[in-house]
Design brief:
The complex is a heterodimer of chains A (395) and B (607). By secondary structure, chain A is an alpha/beta fold. Chain A has 13 helices and 14 strands. Chain B has helices at 3-34, 41-59, 61-82, 94-114, 140-162, 164-174, 176-181, 186-208, 218-233, 238-257, 267-278, 306-321, 328-351, 362-377, 383-389, 391-405, 410-430, 432-435, 453-475, 478-488, 490-495, 500-526, 536-549, 556-574, 578-592, 597-605, and strands spanning 130-133, 136-139, 441-444, 527-529. In chain B, a hairpin with a 2-residue loop joins strand 1 and strand 2. The N and C termini of chain B lie far apart (69 Å). Helix content of chain B is 71%, strand content 2%. The chains are: A alpha/beta (395), B mainly alpha (607). At the A-B interface, helix 2, helix 3, helix 4, strand 7 and helix 7 of A face helix 1, strand 2, helix 10, helix 13 and strand 4 of B.
């Protein structure tokens, strides 16, 4: 390149550098190496959204920039990483986390440091209720919401004897508790005849399946996922546990957990999930096309979560008109926006988004699992009464 | 439970036992001969699973099992030749550090090679369906497993008792120096044994494919199961491992059958604690012969000289000036380093002068942290009071656990500490109403005057540096000398009137209490505390810090802790595959500085 070309390029470079200096920083942290199956699509999701936002000229006349970190998967490390994002990287918003304990620890730090934290993935009810705070917002439908979406179908079947299996930690425990409470309310004569709580990731599937079969239930409610679910399904298929029994499995239709099952996919299970290949709404089609074009891969739930989380921050910043944390928190409360699943609202009462999930049944098609008879369950409709939430939030 | 339910759970237990035995046999073999605590055994098992899943569409399932086992055996041989062979003369437990690095490397390798998604393998051809037993369907493949476990057991037994190779291996197991003196080429013997152990791990992994998906979390789950089986059975004892697998498999199946599934969270560890308390060498183990050689007796540690103390003082002054640089994050990181330096120094107090290696030191760190959080949140104590009283929780824990632990020695002691740590972890994990369950306790922030990062950093500096200096001074007191005497020659110490167990107990309690101090400071620096703070991972971190710095040095563990914390922070920011990066760095350090970083420096300075 000759010298005069450099001279021409100089103002451009300067403008670019200036734009860079003024960019708005989002501090993103997640357990990428602990839950890679969910979080790699998640990362691709927010990267796509970031490119979209910046292609339209950014937010408030400034570029958005994401500083992404691995949080090590433990609350202690995550808090240190979040501190680094806040104090060294000068991030103006925090986003991310996967496991509930990590999400809660970072949410608490966000309150302490007065910075908005958009908890994208954690499912725990506590992050918006008991431990909810002014600066923390959560995108994904909570454990309670997803259970509530399945309960109407469960009550409709009028099965009397239910057996329950769940991974023994907060997510499984609160899913089970909510399910029992909600089903008992809808169908007072229900009986819970067996409960199995294997340790997360270490289910002894043969013995658990046998113990459930021995209780002779009419139906089964499970909140297993990942490797535990795969072991449970294979063992249950072989031993005939699912024959003539209806099974409900929270999250069972999410591609992250459904796809590995392939030809083991049990037929007729009721699940919450994401039938990505069949949703034909224009907002989803647009998202899917963009995602597949960018990554040459199909979207998972994680992709939608990452994509929507970043867009939510951009929308919030636009509405707030500044990066001030209090303004942003105020702007996010009640914010209405578009998502690949349709319009969502960030509830002012508990900072939970109304993003829903798809409820449907599992089926096998060409040797892999798909969801059929599905419908979208809008998150706004599966919430406890406001008074109950106010009591939990102690506000 | 009905009669048929009992029969079926019995069969389930047998199948679990078989797969546990396949997993553990190799580990037991390797330990018996080479005394290597092979942390990477679970990773080799995971490798076997992934290879079998990956190969089976190409070669068919049965061929994939054989190929996977052979490939893993080759990997084992390579590991032995390239890494472990160079470390046999290094202080004990350093091989453990090397194999820990391999765990990190192999996990990221699997992620790189096969991607993040779980891979559910095929069913075994010919064994895909179920047979009807007592009116219930039972998988045919489990029946095959039930037969395979004993078959492998018999084959190993014959190989060890009826072949010349087996005779040599047994000779080396009983007295490796004598075997060497009689002209047995130990090098190839050790390589062979390691390869065979790895082969068994690969075989176990491949055979698990029809039962469970290959996933990245398999390695740690497998290694902890394998350790428990080997220790319950008695280290190096093949029949012991078989018996232990049977015990665990059956009791577990019946716990689940009786609806006591919640107990399975820490089930193996409860069994292990009970067995070790009743039988200190495991079910069929024998007291270990002492390994002779340069590694067994270490020169005593000396307190710092005048120059040393001046250097430490200068360091503290520099640290006290650190806030002037105006970098808030540096202070946060330094606070973490101080906490972990104290944590490592406390472990070193029992491991170095005391000779009591612990695989469960996080229990006391966690007890201190939970103590602080509970006093602060549930009892409404002010932060200052909680910080002062919290170490008493760790002290109480160490008093109880220590009383049992010091009755054992060597790896058995280490494993009993691990068992207690896991039991403490499962209590914290399950006792929702008190400990907040898996989410932990949230909202543990320091009082107003310590709220700023600078103020809290100074508090951490005063507490941690003060405590570390106290620990160093303790090594130079009569207690420290007695501990060392007990470590080097329990018999002679006993003969001159030292109450060996009591001294070790005191050492254990001191170490635990100081770990509790670190835990309390940690809790208030993070604002929350969760069961992860007393998990195996945290214990292993402490072990790595001590070994990295050098067990037989005074100040090494402190540098090890600072180095490891800094590495973790820096590498996780720079690299996607940061676990592998840490593994590579640790492996390199182990090979270059087999006596630890500080140990090496010491030799350079004072030959």
């Amino acid at each position: 390149m000759t010298n005069w070309k450099w001279v021409l390029a100089l103002p451009l470079l300067l403008a670019n550098a200036a734009g860079y200096a003024q960019s708005i920083k989002i501090g993103e942290l997640n357990s990428y190496k602990v839950f890679p199956a969910f979080l790699e699509p998640y990362k691709k999701g927010w990267q796509l959204a970031l490119e979209e936002v910046n292609a339209q000229g950014g937010v408030l006349g400034r570029r958005l920039e994401v500083v992404s970190r691995d949080d090590g998967g433990t609350p202690g490390d995550a808090v240190r990483v979040a501190e680094e994002l806040i104090s060294r990287e000068k991030a103006q918003v925090l986003m991310g986390t996967f496991a509930s304990n990590v999400g809660l620890a970072v949410a608490n730090l966000a309150q302490q440091r007065k910075i908005v934290f958009l908890a994208a993935e954690p499912l725990t009810d506590k992050i918006v209720w008991e431990n909810g705070n002014r600066y923390t917002f959560r995108l994904r439908p909570s454990t309670y919401m997803q259970v509530a979406m399945l309960v109407p179908e469960a009550a409709r079947l009028k099965k009397k004897r239910w057996a329950i299996v769940y991974p023994n930690y907060e997510y499984g425990q609160s899913a089970t508790e909510s399910f029992k409470k909600l089903l008992k309310a809808a169908q007072p004569d229900v009986e819970f005849v067996a409960e199995q709580a294997p340790p997360l990731g270490k289910i002894d599937a043969g013995a658990v399946v046998q113990a459930l079969a021995d209780a002779k239930p009419d139906a089964i409610f499970s909140s297993l996922f990942a490797a535990d679910l795969q072991k449970f399904v294979r063992e249950g298929n072989t031993r005939g546990l699912f024959a003539e029994r209806t099974v409900f499995n929270l999250l069972g239709g999410e591609p992250e957990y459904l796809d590995p099952l392939k030809d083991e996919t049990p037929q007729g299970w009721w699940v919450t999930g994401y039938p990505w290949s069949e949703i034909k709404t224009p907002e989803h089609q647009r998202f899917r096309d963009a995602y597949e074009k960018r990554w040459n891969d199909y979207p998972r739930v994680g992709s939608v979560v990452g994509y929507t989380a970043l867009h939510a921050i951009a929308e919030g910043l636009r509405k707030a008109g500044s990066t001030n944390a209090d303004n942003l928190a105020r702007a996010l409360r009640g914010l209405k926006m578009q998502s690949p699943f349709g319009p969502i609202t960030w509830r002012a009462i508990d900072h939970q988004s109304t993003m829903g999930a798809y409820v449907g049944q599992l089926a096998k098609k060409d040797g892999r699992g798909v969801m059929v008879n599905w419908r979208y369950a809008d998150g706004a409709k599966f919430q406890p009464a406001d008074a109950e939430i106010r009591k939990l939030r102690k506000e | 439970m009905s009669g048929s339910a009992i029969l079926l759970q019995f069969l389930n237990g047998l199948a679990t036992a078989s797969s546990l035995y396949l997993l553990a046999a190799g580990l037991s073999l390797i330990f018996g001969v080479s005394r290597i605590v092979n942390f990477a055994h679970g990773s080799l098992y995971m490798l076997g699973m992934y290879l079998a899943v990956w190969l089976s569409p190409r070669t068919g399932f049965w061929a994939s099992v054989a190929v996977a086992a052979l490939l893993v055996a080759a990997a084992g041989a390579a590991i032995e030749i390239l890494v472990l062979r160079r470390l046999y003369k290094a202080p004990e437990l350093l091989q453990l550090l090397a194999t820990f690095a391999l765990v990190l490397l192999l996990r990221d390798f699997a992620l790189w090679a096969w991607g993040p998604q779980d891979m559910l393998g095929p069913r075994a051809p010919g064994f895909a369906d179920a047979v009807t037993i007592a009116g219930s369907r039972f998988p045919r493949y489990e029946l095959l497993l039930i037969a395979l476990g004993p078959l492998v057991f018999v084959a190993l037994h014959l190989a060890l008792t009826r072949t010349r190779w087996g005779t040599l291996v047994r000779a080396a197991t009983q007295d490796r120096e004598m075997a060497g003196a009689l002209g047995v080429n130990q090098r190839w013997l050790f390589t062979g044994v390691f390869a065979l152990g790895a082969c068994l791990a690969g075989l176990g992994g491949a055979l698990a494919v029809p039962r469970e998906p290959a996933s990245l979390e398999v390695d740690l789950a497998a290694i902890s199961d394998a350790f428990v089986v080997v220790v319950i059975g008695g280290l190096g004892s093949m029949p012991g491992a078989f018996l232990a697998a049977l015990l665990i498999g059956e009791v577990k199946a019946f716990c689940i059958g009786l609806g006591l599934s919640k107990i399975t969270l820490a089930f193996e560890f409860i069994v292990m604690a009970v067995v070790l308390v009743l039988r200190p060498w495991g079910l069929l183990g024998k007291p270990m012969s002492l390994a002779r050689g340069p590694a067994s007796i270490e020169p005593p540690l000396h307190s710092l000289g005048r120059k040393g103390w001046l250097a430490i003082l200068a360091l503290v002054v520099v640290l006290a000036l650190a806030p002037l640089a105006g970098r808030e994050y540096a202070l946060i990181l330094l606070t973490d380093m101080l906490v972990f330096a104290l944590f490592a120094a406390s472990l070193h107090f029992m491991m170095g002068p005391g000779g009591l290696a612990s695989f469960g030191h996080a229990a006391y760190f966690g007890l201190g942290a939970y103590g602080a959080a509970l006093l602060f949140l549930r009892f409404g104590l002010p932060m200052e009071g909680a910080l002062v009283l919290a170490p008493l929780f760790a002290l109480a824990g160490a008093l109880v656990f220590g009383w049992f632990c010091v009755r054992l020695s060597g790896v058995y002691l280490a494993m009993l500490t691990l068992a207690f740590a896991q039991i403490a972890w499962s209590v914290a994990f399950q006792w929702d109403s008190v400990t907040g369950g898996s989410n932990g306790l949230i909202g543990v922030w320091p009082s107003g005057w310590l709220a700023s990062k600078t103020a809290y950093y100074y508090a951490a500096l005063v507490i941690c540096a003060g405590a570390i200096v106290m620990l160093w001074r303790l090594i130079d007191t009569p207690l420290g000398y007695t501990l060392r005497a007990v470590r080097d020659s329990p018999l002679r110490a006993d003969a001159i009137g030292i109450d060996v167990r009591r001294v070790q107990w005191i050492g254990f309690v001191v170490a635990g209490t100081f770990a509790g101090v670190a835990g309390a400071v940690y809790a208030f620096s993070k604002g929350s505390i969760s069961p992860e703070s007393l998990s195996v991972g945290r214990s292993v971190d402490a072990l790595v810090m001590v070994l990295l710095g050098g067990v037989q040095t005074l100040t090494g563990p402190v540098w090890g802790a600072a180095l490891f914390t800094w590495l973790e922070d820096a590498l996780s920011r720079e690299f996607g595959y940061w676990r592998a990066a840490i593994g590579a760095v640790v492996l390199l350090l182990v090979l270059v500085f087999p006596k630890g970083v500080a140990g090496h420096l010491k030799e350079r300075v004072a030959p």
